[in-house]
Amino acid sequence: MKTIGIGLVGSGFMGRCHANAYSSVAGIFDVPLKPVLKMLADANLEMAEAAAQSLQFENFTSDWQKLVDHPEVELVDITAPNHLHAPIALAAIAKGKPVYCEKPLACTLAEAKAMRDAATSAGVATLVGYNYLQNPMIQTAREIVQSGEIGELLSFRGVHAEDFMADAQAPYTTRLDAGQGGGALYDIGSHIISLARFLVGPISEVMGMQRTVYPERPEAAKHSKISGSKRMKTVKVDDQTHFLARFENGCCGTLEANWLAWGRKMNLAFELNGSKGTLVFTQEHFNELRLYQANQQPGRDGFKILEAGPNHGTYAKFCPAPGHQLGFNELKIIEVFQILHALGASGKSWPDFHEAYEIQKILVAVNNSAKESRWCSLDEIDSPSP
Amino acid sequence: MKTIGIGLVGSGFMGRCHANAYSSVAGIFDVPLKPVLKMLADANLEMAEAAAQSLQFENFTSDWQKLVDHPEVELVDITAPNHLHAPIALAAIAKGKPVYCEKPLACTLAEAKAMRDAATSAGVATLVGYNYLQNPMIQTAREIVQSGEIGELLSFRGVHAEDFMADAQAPYTTRLDAGQGGGALYDIGSHIISLARFLVGPISEVMGMQRTVYPERPEAAKHSKISGSKRMKTVKVDDQTHFLARFENGCCGTLEANWLAWGRKMNLAFELNGSKGTLVFTQEHFNELRLYQANQQPGRDGFKILEAGPNHGTYAKFCPAPGHQLGFNELKIIEVFQILHALGASGKSWPDFHEAYEIQKILVAVNNSAKESRWCSLDEIDSPSP
Amino acid sequence: MKTIGIGLVGSGFMGRCHANAYSSVAGIFDVPLKPVLKMLADANLEMAEAAAQSLQFENFTSDWQKLVDHPEVELVDITAPNHLHAPIALAAIAKGKPVYCEKPLACTLAEAKAMRDAATSAGVATLVGYNYLQNPMIQTAREIVQSGEIGELLSFRGVHAEDFMADAQAPYTTRLDAGQGGGALYDIGSHIISLARFLVGPISEVMGMQRTVYPERPEAAKHSKISGSKRMKTVKVDDQTHFLARFENGCCGTLEANWLAWGRKMNLAFELNGSKGTLVFTQEHFNELRLYQANQQPGRDGFKILEAGPNHGTYAKFCPAPGHQLGFNELKIIEVFQILHALGASGKSWPDFHEAYEIQKILVAVNNSAKESRWCSLDEIDSPSP
Amino acid sequence: MKTIGIGLVGSGFMGRCHANAYSSVAGIFDVPLKPVLKMLADANLEMAEAAAQSLQFENFTSDWQKLVDHPEVELVDITAPNHLHAPIALAAIAKGKPVYCEKPLACTLAEAKAMRDAATSAGVATLVGYNYLQNPMIQTAREIVQSGEIGELLSFRGVHAEDFMADAQAPYTTRLDAGQGGGALYDIGSHIISLARFLVGPISEVMGMQRTVYPERPEAAKHSKISGSKRMKTVKVDDQTHFLARFENGCCGTLEANWLAWGRKMNLAFELNGSKGTLVFTQEHFNELRLYQANQQPGRDGFKILEAGPNHGTYAKFCPAPGHQLGFNELKIIEVFQILHALGASGKSWPDFHEAYEIQKILVAVNNSAKESRWCSLDEIDSPSP
Q: Which of C154-163, D222-231, D352-361 is least confident?
């Protein structure tokens, strides 16, 4: 089988998750290319070496440029902090190499645009890690929408709520760094926006409201000595964002990004009402999808609970029997298959840098709208030419 | 026992519901006044007579003024169409009689203000039929909020969605009449607004978005003959309203009123996140309340499902054992008890015309805001002096 | 309207519940007879007087025989302790009066048989308070079964679990008195048995297992003084019963009665699998019924959640709109309507003493089977001629 | 890192699942031995070759004895049909090689005993694929039970219900072959029995009831030509088994195995009531566990929904954040880690052949008991010496 050399930048939560997906994908899918873990880059040599060993990469480096340049690295996979997405991706594209990058695409719209344009010019395949879209039940939801089973789309209520920053004493991290595109909207809101676009379509205008509930957070203690007297660091990004959205097809909705929602561990959820039916979903039970179809027999009508099975998306690749359930990591395996399939066969992957740029425009529009207390059209949003 | 003569205007869904509540209340609660069903008024004499007989009223009339004037009618209960709320209530207040009125209070803010002011001047007790607030689990939710159990309030996501107008061919009714304060926002949105105020407190500003999805509806066929060629009637009110809200205490939220939500029969629902916990509720399971408390034992933390029982609100009056569940009609019995208790003992009932006027201001603010595509402060909203 | 004089024996939880149902029934249903609360009997005159006043009965007595004999008492309603069911019912039947009696029918099978036979001979209508059967969703379940929608019945898993005796220190009550037919099986197991018969049909044989987990319980303190030194009383009845059942139609199942199930407030629940579909129900959400139909479209198949509405049983009498939900007390209103309807119109009520006797036979069979560690056929069970 | 050569027999659903687990385990866990996929055996050379290629094994064979004998095969993994478990396992043990075998252990108790005894004599590590026990939430349930958090165990209601044989026309497979230990009880009932033992402890006696609902099934069509005229094959095994169980610690319960339960895709479920609390679980939401603790604050008591997170079992190895959820295949990865950990470090794996033999005894006892319509003590069950 033909192989493809993988260069992975970053070895945190997502880095490990990607690495494991490469190891597993060929057992699940009929891949056109077999991934070979060529090189891992991390912040310093020690980390890189340890990660390379644990994740079974052939080489390691503390200089991502070397990884990009390495002749056997044929796919550059970026799970580094957000501010590094643009420089690494641009360097890779400059070498004509395809890029698989974690979300959000970039810290600023200008960066995102440059990345999109460079990818287009170079004609390289790209993929961005909005992994929840790869869920067979979300693929089924899209199929239901596209086939007209629930009719014209009328109302969308979406939310991504978690509680990992709900404790006022949760320490400052780079997720809180405005310069890195931080905040609840960028970090988790981008997921529900990606879902809204995937299912409902393009958004035409937004009206946002944002709040920084905890304007300072304790610095993460680097040395145990000073942990007693915590130093506080100012937070400028949103802890919660709510916004109204109008879609191009007329559908209206509310969206919310919230990392202060006590008790919510992974409430990426939506309800989508159409003129002929309704879909309800939450990532809390992501192997299910609820469907209500208009015009059922009276007295026997109700929401149906669809359970993931071989008739849904790529589920059958994982298991021949219904109801066994996929896990979060397996959504990443599907994602990795998408990029391999694009590179080895179809040439198309999704969501690519184009799509991620459109999502990024919405993030900017919501921020602008909230700041200026007015509706913001997506037409207004475009980066100045780089 | 002292009695109180009831005059009921209207005998539709709500009229019957009120009448039954008067029959039942004394068996459930220790009422200070025993209601006596004195007189029923309806649109014409035939309807009034039939309803009086079926609901066991002593007298009937087709002229609500006679009911108001009747010396033995000591409480005027209004379940007539919205545009009659104001004239009947004002007439009753003019006679010094207390008023129990269905929601929304009035068709216009000017009417609502006049009703509120008249009641204040006359010093009569009033109650408005926001019955979902009377639910023991909602009373418990408020208790949890007021006691600080979930801390400072941060985010509220509220919705009232049903599907009774979801069929594009559902016929035109007075609920669709703009002159009568119709539309999804007034009709059902007022419920979730009443709940938001009850739990979170006053709203300071709103930003609305509204849509009339079906701009015409078939006229209700009066004669079977012409049912083949339906005549269409123009609809000007909203089928769905979404809005952002800022509360005076800083809490931020989204609210939605939607009567096109296929499959939703009674989805009056909210999630309320505080700095120390979360409450989740839906009227679809209204004998339950979900509570997450911060700082639970690691590995043993989770949302708790509280089931209604004798420790919650007035539940014990209905049943000594937990988990047996109240029905919708029983919320109305609690409501009727509120007004009897006010009249015979405490002097205080809630939500009264003051509260209903505050809710009405929000309805107006949302409409204005949607029309003008801008944030609307509640401070702006006030009726011109009548 | 014709009236019927009600004589009620007992004014505890169930007595109050019945009295309230009489007050409410005429507002909900088109009753052929209007109930008039004639006389209430209780253990002593003080209790009887207080209850009569609170529940609005015309007369009261401490001697139930007087109530039975009273010429204006036309229906004898028994909510007295179990050991009084037989003598009161037999006395009423001797007077040719219909009887509405709480469950279980009697303490012993001989009593139950005598009651059934007397009612048959006298030709009086009877009704027994297995109120959960009156639920519109249970009526719908039966309709689904009877119409063949789920095909041949194959497996039934039923349970009635609560936690009101789960605390080892919960005091001794008459529910624990073997002489009064006490124990979890008689007290709550009779409900799930009534449901099994209603939905699946006659049981042919059973195999039981029983356990008295707490063989003694503290006596209920009568005087606060001695509460410090609790006296213990021996318990002989079952705290939990599990049994296998074979139905006449071949369906097989397990049933459980358990009052030690911490956290369960009203878990009367079943799953019924047929050759063409499945029904799932729990009284914890008793306004819902889950239905799975075989041969749904692949990829769109799932359990449907039916929500109670006007298309289900008598729901429409309570509310014209779906999803508003009935409460426990309203199941009793439906039950009261059944007996009024039988007396004033149809002549038929259900479940009557015949049915209740069949249920009682199963209770005996399960007890025998558990005691003797063997399958017990229902054919074996018959009372000696009285 | 030290490696271990894997020899896998079988490449069906479970074979693929095991192979993928070997590929993934080292990325998730700190394994003491790195698995190397040495050899795959299957029914014929073509199948073996294709599977070896797709699952990335170095060698292949159609003769499992060669696999067992191969010097580089250091762990024999058996996912072959049930009747091959014993000969392969015994051959492997004879070579002193550890065995990882799918459930149920064997077709007959004699075989199972021989396997257990051989493993003991040879001192080799063994593991049997009762993978649902490896679920972090089941590990948490056991922790809760063992720590006494829910007190003394009183009642267990367990079920494993699916619908893969619910269609009367579902074709005959080896799962229906009595000679291979087929039937719902062996095939899926063994899972709920393994769970009952894991959580509650040893069972002392059982009372079973079994039914073959469909006594013949169409033969699987081998050639499309004859599909019109299906030939039927007689079925002798149970389609559904219900049984009562007494545990050694006094706990009582009902268990059910049922592959005719329309709508149930993976309903491996239980409720376990203790003297201080209750646990409720279903594999339908296997990343959750419901816990009710006695003595909660009145009015704030309820079942808690625990969501899988880093505080539960081995979850943290898969994901640092809670609520992301594991999939079915990941339970197999945990299982594979167990055997690697046993071989490379602890020497102990669980459930081993000893445990699987105990489970097998219960299968036999239930069958005997059902056949003879009597309680069957586990003491009675022992295989004749081989």
A: D222-231
Per the DSSP assignment, residues forming a β-bridge with C206 are C245, C376
Q: How many CA atoms lie within 13 A of D53 on its CB side?
A: 8
A101/A9 Cα distance (integer angstroms): 10
Average pLDDT (C239-263) is 98
Beta bridge partners of B270: B158, B281
User: Which tokens in the block code for residue B154?
Assistant: 């941060």
Stated as kind and residue range, the H or E segment containing D193 is helix D190-199
Q: Average the pLDDT over B267-287 and give the result.
A: 98
Domain ranges in chain B are 3-131, 136-285+287-323
Nearest to D261 among C244, C250, C273 (CB): C273
CATH architecture of B3-131: 3-Layer(aba) Sandwich (3.40)
B128 pLDDT exceeds 80?
yes
What are φ and ψ of residue D247, in 5° steps? -95, 160
Instruction: Please report, rounded to a whole number, the percentage of residues in chain C having pLDDT higher than 90.
Output: 91
Task: Answer for the pair C42, C73: CB distance below 8 angstroms, yes or no.
Answer: no
> Subunits that touch chain C (at least 3 Cβ pairs < 8 angstroms)?
A, B, D
Choose the CATH number for D136-285+287-323 among 3.10.50.40, 3.40.30.10, 3.90.230.10, 3.30.360.10.
3.30.360.10
Read off the pLDDT of each residue in C181-193 and give the average, rounded to a whole number.
94
CB of A208 within 8 A of CB of A369? Answer: yes
* D263 with C292: Cβ contact below 8 A: yes
Q: For residues B215 and B234, is the Cβ–Cβ distance under 8 A?
A: yes
Which residue in B189, B337, B207 sits closest to B268, CA to CA? Answer: B189
Residue C224 has pLDDT above 50, yes or no: no
CA torsion, points D190, D196, D199, D200, in degrees to nearest 10?
A: -150
Least CB–CB distance from D323: residue in A20, A56, A266 = A266
Residue numbers in B near D146 (CB within 8 A): none
Residue A26 has which token pair?
A: 């060929």
Name the nearest CA neighbour of B84 among B173, B9, B158. Answer: B9
CA atoms of A132 and A263, how far apart (whole Å): 20
Query: Strand (E) positions, chain C?
Result: 3-9, 34-41, 59-61, 75-78, 99-101, 126-128, 153-161, 203-211, 216-218, 232-234, 240-247, 252-258, 267-274, 277-282, 288-293, 302-307, 376-377
Q: Which of D285, D300, D303, D315 to mutate to test the interface with B (most CBs of B within 10 A)?
A: D300
**Are the CB atoms for A306 and C302 separated by under 8 Å?**
yes
Touching partners of D (3+ C-beta pairs < 8 Å): A, B, C
For chain D, state the CA radius of gyration. Answer: 21
Q: How many CB atoms lie within 10 A of CB A297?
A: 7
CB contact under 8 A, A302 and C311: no
pLDDT tens, C68-121?
999 999 999 999 999 999 999 999 999 999 999 999 999 999 999 999 999 999
**What integer pLDDT is reported at residue D314 of this predicted model?**
97
Q: What are the φ/ψ torsions at residue B143 (nearest 5 degrees)?
A: -60, -45
Q: Evaluate if residue B384 carries a pLDDT over 90.
A: no
Asked if residues A21 and D32 have their Cβ atoms less than 8 Å apart, the reply is no
Q: What is the chain D residue with the closest CA to A54? A: D27
Here the tokens at position A153 are 């789309």
The pTM assigned to this predicted structure is 0.97
Token pair recorded at residue D119: 């493993």
Q: How many angstroms away from the CA of C315 is the closest CA of chain A? A: 11
Q: Are C129 and C359 in contact (CB under 8 A)?
A: no
CB-CB neighbors (< 8 A) of C207 in chain D: 207, 209, 244
**Chain B residues in contact with D304 (beta carbon < 8 A):** 300-305
- Which three-class secondary structure state does DSSP give residue B332? helix
Give yes or no on whether A3-131 and A136-285+287-323 have one common fold: no
Q: Which residues of C touch D161 (CB under 8 A)?
A: 271, 273
DSSP summary character for residue C230: P
